[in-house]
Every structure is written in C-alpha cells, then in structure tokens.
Design a protein that fits this description.
Largest sheet: 8 strands, mixed, barrel
Number of domains: 1
Strand content: 25-35%
Number of strands: 8
GO molecular function, one term: hydrolase activity
CATH superfamily: Glycosidases
Protein name: Glycoside hydrolase domain-containing protein
Distance between the termini: 14 Å
CATH architecture: Alpha-Beta Barrel
Pfam families: Rv2525c_GlyHyd-like
CATH class: Alpha Beta
InterPro entries: GH, Rv2525c-like_Glyco_Hydro-like
Strand order of the largest sheet: 1-2-3-4-5-6-7-8
Keywords: Hydrolase
CATH topology: TIM Barrel
Length: 235
C-alpha cells in the first residue's frame, strides 16, 4: 500500500536517475510496465536487480501490464480482444502478468494493474468483451495469490469497470487507477464515479501527462498520479 504522489514513464529510468530523484522529487512511487504484448517501450533497465535496488532505496513500484485491447478501439494493437477469445485471453494474460512480475521479484500480494486504453463504451458488444476479459484476468491473478488492479480513462475504459462495479458484477479488479487530466492531485474530490466505489485505499488518479521534470540533475518526462492504493510487494 502507498499513499502519495507517483509517476510513470514509458521506459523505466536508469538506477542513477531513480537514486537522483529519491528524496529530491515529490514522488514516492513509480509505475513500471512489466509486460503485455501491447507494451509500447523496451525496458532495458527493468530487471530483478533494478527492482531490488530501487525498492531498497525506498521506492514503491506500481506494476502495469498492457494486455489485449478492446475490439472497437482505433489503431493497431498486436493483441486484441474478441467476444470469442475474451475469456481465454484474459486467463492467459493474467497468468503471464503474474509470471512477469514474479520474475522481477514482485511477490504474491502485489497488485498488478491491467492497462486498457480508451474505447467507445456505447458499443455494448465491445464493452461486454472488455469486461469478460478483465474478469478472466482478475480470476487468473487472484488464483496465483496476486491482486488485480485496472488502469483506464475516466470517460471510457475506467468508466466501464466503475459501471460494472456499481451493478455488482463479480471478479472485478479491487483497485481502479483512472486517467482524468484535471490537474487535481487527489483521489477523492476528483473521483468521477459514485463515492462508495473503490473506497478504502483502492484508487489512483493520473491527473497530468507529459511533464518534463528534473531532480538531482536528472531529467525525465513523466505522467503524474495521486496514489492511494496497493502496490508491488518486494523483498
């Protein structure tokens, strides 16, 4: 569990940068892309030794897995959900997310955040496929004693999960990380859904993107999040 400010950037920064930022930046946690066929950046720094070192320095880590993307999404994703494959893909991707996180030294009890990008939630068939996939991913993660989280856009992918939660759907992620670029570094006043949803330290809010920041002489372009939710368990 971590409460405070977090950042994410496409490629995990070098250890020297993480050390330079530790204690000089406002951040206490960093999101890292641990896997998924739709992961967009190479991760030359992201190794088990890097995870151990940054964790020993005091950083908390937020594992992101860029799994299959919605069937109605624009653009070209290497892995797409279909109605026919949603359940099987979710199960295999959930198992793969655990394997990737475990190989990095992130132990059972870690929260793994499924990254689903924006799509048209008015497309019912598309939304249903995303939900089926997410539920299967969650079941697979939980069966291996990890925790399931979800990252998505407040007006689309995250909204679909919040709607399902409000309706009492089973097998949903326990934490919701919503992208809402309002500049508000909080997880309460900015929360765009019913107040009771994902309460009790189960929210992240990505509130600003593409910010160039320099601390300790090291510069990185990051997205900013307010965090009050589970993170990786290391050590």
């Amino acid at each position: 569990m971590f409460t405070g400010l977090a950042f994410d950037t496409c490629t995990a920064p070098p250890l020297a940068t993480m050390n330079a930022w530790r204690g000089t930046s406002p951040y206490g946690a960093a999101a890292v892309y641990v896997g998924g066929r739709n992961r967009g950046c190479a991760q030359p720094q992201l190794t088990a030794s890097w995870v151990r070192a940054v964790s020993a320095a005091g950083w908390k880590l937020i594992p992101l897995y860029v799994g299959a993307q919605p069937p109605c999404q624009t653009g070209s994703s290497p892995e797409r959900i279909t109605a026919a494959t949603a359940s099987a893909l979710g199960a295999s991707d959930g198992a793969d997310a655990v394997a990737k996180a475990s190989a990095l030294g992130m132990r059972a009890g870690s929260a793994l955040y499924l990254d689903v990008e924006a799509y048209n939630t008015a497309d019912t068939a598309c939304a249903d496929a995303v939900l089926t996939y997410t539920q299967a991913f969650t079941r697979a993660v939980r069966a291996r004693s990890y925790r399931s989280g979800f990252y998505g856009f407040a007006s689309s992918s995250a909204a679909g999960i919040a709607k399902a939660a409000a309706q009492g759907a089973p097998d949903l992620p326990e934490a919701l990380w919503y992208a809402k670029y309002d500049g508000a570094a909080d997880t309460s006043g900015s929360f765009p859904y019913a107040a009771g949803l994902f309460s009790g330290h189960r929210r992240g809010h990505q509130y600003q993107v593409n910010q160039r920041e320099t601390y300790g002489g090291a510069g990185v372009t990051v997205d900013r999040s307010a965090w009050d939710a589970p993170v990786a368990v290391v050590g």
